[in-house]
Amino acid sequence: MTVIVRDLRPDVRPDIEAFAHVRHLALPFILWTPDAVVHRLVHTHPDARFRCLVVEEDGDVIGTAQLGLAHDSPEPGQGFLNVYVRPDRVRRGAGGLLVRAAEEHLAAQGATRLFSWVLDEPANRAFAERHGYRASRSAHFLRLDLANGTLPPLQDPPPGVELRTAADFADDPRPLFELDAETASDEPSDIDYEFTDYEAWVEENWKHPLLDRDLTTVVVVDGRPVAFSAAHTDGATRYASAMTGTARAFRGRGLAKLAKTASLHRARAAGYTEAFTGNDAGNGPMLAINKWFGYEICGTEVRYVRELG
Description:
Blueprint: E1 3-7, H1 13-26, H2 34-43, E2 51-57, E3 60-69, E4 78-85, H3 94-108, E5 113-119, H4 122-130, E6 134-145, E7 161-165, H5 174-184, H6 198-206, E8 217-221, E9 224-233, E10 238-246, H7 255-269, E11 274-280, H8 284-293, E12 296-307
């Protein structure tokens, strides 16, 4: 048995497909497609020093890692690594190889604190703790049965409020960037972000291959986007809410519910049968909204932290 760690090869399609397959087996609550894997590897900002690693066992990809720096945080020295191994190929040393390679790379890039999401299962948590990581916040994966579940009924927007889609902003998506930046900065997180680079947002988010602009719903008041629900789809049966948020001045009016209801109804009409989303365990308002839609928790992960040096 030969086990090696190496970089993912973005120009080798079977390599990309194997990476996406391992991630799907380990994290079935997230949409993984080869095109999405390549997009993140190629279009993440250079300052992130982003890398994808794989572990091969006798030529088969059995483990994966994504790692980089939180370059858009005002606090320097923060890095991340997320390691996942095929559930049927654990205890072969793949995870340890990936962690060591990732930590060496991030330390060389100046990282002093590392963050890693770990599935909330005894073996996974024990693995993180053996490598010197301590538990921090947690988050939930949620699933909604679009094919058989009952969605809240569609409602007409209140006076002065208009429902549009991201496709309506194709010529100038900057207003959506500004709304995304405001709402993302209020998301619960271990890391503070300053979301200011419009060109990077266009490359990383607006041009993301999973973004469905026709299903992404935007609430507009006086010509200004004030709430939205971003939709990712795999082009087959799976839909995911990538982000739902409301501008601070317009919160408490049910506009996020309005956007998400419209998006979910259109997703079901388009043939999508499963909807996924994720929420920080401390984000009570969004958990309550998703429970109202009928989402149920289908998995939990824990953020682990390690100080280097």
